Amino acid sequence: MKGKVVIVTGANGGLGRHVTQQFLDAGANVVGVSRRIVKSDFDSGAFTPLPADISTADGAQSMTKAVVAKLGRVDIVTHTVGGFAGGRPLHETEDEVFENMLNLNLTSTFFLLRAVIPELRKTGNGRLIAIGSRAAAEPGAGVGAYSASKAAMVSLIRTAAAENADAGMTANVILPGTIDTTANRKSMPSADFSKWVQPSRIASLVVWLAGDSGKDVNGALIPVYGSGL
Fold first, then answer.
1. pLDDT digits over 198-225, tens only?
2. Predicted pLDDT of residue 229
3. All domains of the chain in start order, with CATH
4. pLDDT range class, residue 162, cuts 50, 70, 90
5. How far apart are CA 224 and CA 86, in angstroms?
């Protein structure tokens, strides 16, 4: 990863922090994107914090232009941002909840892809890795809006894979089960955390996909469900 320019969205989040650190450990120049992020979040001279809101078209475009202006190009984009809401069946799901899930998980991804794909194509070997959810492939009761938004996000990523293979670019989606983060532990305190997916392992897979070893993987949906199958 030495010399590579990597964008990590949600870089200081529960999973994003691990992804960012592993890219830094691998020698990459990492731009960490979040609404609130500072240099001291990571102890590395190769880390650049970039406060930005990619949930709007202008925000995603401005973020991408800022990265190119500072570092000259974009080689790898890892998208870890998303949101969750659930608990009610479809016929009781409010408009606001459904629209919020679409905005957080689908619309923001669309804006990001539209902004970064032209830059990734320029490199001849661009890499795009998005974090989806097991629910995108295996929807369950009470999470209809979330599952639908993640499934649609997966469709966008696979479309990006098909449209940009001619430029040597790959685009893949990791579908994790419940990730062992502080936020998830607080929301499900009685769960068996030992069966959850460790964020460091997802981060290792992200870095592998972004490297030369992962160049033949394109348009894949990769399940990482943990031991609680």
1. 999 999 999 999 999 999 999 999 999 8
2. 59
3. 5-224 (3.40.50.720)
4. very high
5. 21
As given in the structure block, the two tokens for residue 176 are: 């994790």
How far is it, in rounded angstroms, from Cα 211 to Cα 153?
A: 23
Q: What are phi and psi of 111, to 5 degrees?
A: -60, -40
12-38 tens-digit pLDDT: 998 999 999 999 999 999 999 999 999
Are 76 and 127 contacting, i.e. CB atoms less than 8 angstroms apart?
yes
How many Cα atoms are found within 13 Å in the side-chain-facing hemisphere of 72?
Answer: 5
Token code pair at residue 50: 């970039």
CA distances from 52 to 64, 71, 82 (A): 10, 17, 15
For residues 43 and 219, what is the distance between their CA atoms, to the nearest angstrom? 34
Query: d(Cα 165, Cα 76) in Å, to the nearest integer?
Result: 15
Q: What is the rounded end-to-end Cα distance, in angstroms, of the chain?
A: 33
